Amino acid sequence: MRRMGELVVARTVDYLATLPDQPSCGEVHDEGVVRAMREPAPEEGTPLEALLDPLFDEWIPRSFNTAKSGYLAYIPGGGVYPAALADFIAAGTNRFTGVWMAAPALVQLEANVLDWLRDWMGFPQGTAGLFTTGGSMAMFNAICCARERHLGPEIRRGTIYVSSQAHHCIEKAAKLAGIHHDRVRTIPCDDDFRMRVDPLAAAIAADRAAGLTPFMVFSTAGTTNTGAVDPIEAVADLAAREGLWHHVDGAYGGCFHLVPELRPLLHGLPRADSLTLDPHKGLFLPYGTGALLVRDGSALRALHSSTAGYLPPNQDEFYDPAQFGPELSRGFPGLRLWLAFKLFGAARYRAALAEKRVLALEAAEALRQVPGLVLDAPPQLSLLAFHLAGPALPTLAAQNAATQALHERVTARGDVMITGCTVDGRVLARICVLSFRTRRRDIGIAVRQIAEEAAILTRDAPSPA
Fold this sequence. Notes:
By secondary structure, the chain is an alpha/beta fold. The chain folds into 3 domains: 2-66; 87-345, Aspartate Aminotransferase, domain 2, CATH 3.40.640; 347-459, Aspartate Aminotransferase, domain 1 (Alpha-Beta Complex). It has 15 helices and 11 strands. Strand 10 and strand 11 form a beta hairpin. The mean pLDDT is 96.
C-alpha cells in the first residue's frame, strides 16, 4: 500500500512540477483516440505502473490544462495540493459523514468551515449551509427551499426571475424543482451586462396581475460571460418589498467577499436569503467543491429533515449533514476546505484573491492599448471580455470570426488558454484570472500574445464561417 501511494504521489508531483512546460490545452479534438479507449471490463488485474503510464502520459494531457498558471479560460481555480491530500485521507479512512452520530468530530470540521464561510460572507447566526458538488446543486437546493416556503403545493403558479446573463444552470435546476421553463422570466441587462431593476419590477407586477405567484429572484455576483455583478442591493430592496426569496449566485465572485477592501464591489450580498459559492473557483479547491448558505437555516432543515427506524434520533445541538441536505451517503468534502484553510490561513487566501483582482485590472489596462481591440467588459471582479474591430473588419460577422480566431490562436500557442462566449450575437474573447498559480508574468504573456495575434487578424481578417 505504501509503495502504491508513493508511486501515485511521485507521478502527481512530477506532473505539477512540469506545469510550466506543458501546453495550456491538450489535444481534445481527436475522437479516434477516445473511441479506441472503449474496452470491456477486465477479468484480471494490471500492475499499477502500467495503469499510471497511460493515465499521466496519454489521457490527462488530452484535456484543458486547468492546473497551469496560464489557464485563464472559463473560471479557473487551480486545485491546491493539500485538498488532494485531504481527499486521499477521506477515501483511505472511508468514514461515513452522512449523519452526525457516525463521525461527530469529522462532521464538526465541516460545520466549522460552513461557519467560516457564513462569517466571511457576512451572514447572521442562524444561517445553515450545505456542501455540494458545485453551483448547480446549490441552486437546486435553494430553489427547493424557496418553493417550499412561498408556494407549498401550489407550484404551478410560481414564477422566478433571472437576468439574461444568469447561469443556465438556474433554469435547469428550476425544472428539477418543478418550476417549468414557462415560469422562468428573463430580465434584460444594462450596457454593463447587469440586471436592470425597473424591468424586473414590471415583470413581477405583470405576473401578479395575471394571477401568478412571483416567489424568487436571482442576482449574480460575477456572471460567467463577462464577470458582471448585478445591483445586488437594489434587487434585495425590491425582493424585500415584494416578499420574494432573493438568491445570489456567487459561484464565481462570492469568495471575493473574504477581502474587506473588495466588499464594496459586492454591496448587498450579505442581505441574500441564500447564496451559492463555488470553493473550486474562488478558494482554489479541486472541482466538485460547492456550497450553499441559507440565511434562515430552518428553511433548509425543513426541506431536508427526515428520519427512519434504522437511523439514530435527530438531535439539535450539532450540525448534521443529513438534516440539511438531500444526501445520506456522501463523501467528506469539508475536509478539503478545512485542511487547506488550516494550512494556509485566511490571510493568505485574502492576499491571493486581492492579487487576482489587481492582475485583471492590469490586463484590462494593457489591452486597452492594443490597436483594434475593444474592451466590452472591464473587470468588475477579475474577468474581462473584449472583441476585435477595425477597418478590415467592417461587419459583425467579420468581427466575430476574427475574435473567435483570436482566442483560438492564442490558446494554440500553448502558454495561456483563453476562451470566448457569445452575448447578444457578438462573440467576445474573455480572460478570467482566478488560479492561485497565475502571476504577473502569465498576464504579460497573455497580453503580448493577444496583441500579436490581434495585429495579424485585424490586418488579414479571417473569412466568416
